[in-house]
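Why does residue order matter? Because the sequence determines the fold. Keep that principle in mind as you read this record.
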Amino acid sequence: MEVILREDVPNVGTIGDIVKVKPGFARNYLLPRGLAVIADNRNLSVLDHQKRVMADRRERERRQAEASAQKLAAVRLTVTARAGEEGRLFGSVTNIDIERALADQGFAIERRRIRLDEPIKVIGEHTVPIQLGVGVNAHVTVVVKAEEA
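Structure:
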């Protein structure tokens, strides 16, 4: 029996897959739990429609992310922090500081999307990757300056 999976089922398939299973497995496990529907013409056309809608949405999100990446590539953030004479910061610049600096320039980027391997602890210019989703990444230049006393 062919069924369309409505959820990921271990060792069977992932959501949206059309799989061939034993009739008893489908009748006694997949269908009663709502994990799958029978792959008839009506359900197949509904699945095709949902796949097209999801593909359109994903393409729209990718275009928006690429536009944001182009804008972010031109951004140069300046963060001031207390530092010692050798250029080491007393604290560090984290993704929270970068999120605030981006917000000051009008960008609403969630801090979890700012990919710092570790907090910035020295004065200078740093390139920070930002994951915008849908496989699109951007890089922002962050300049850390010593706070003047």
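The chain has a mean pLDDT of 92.
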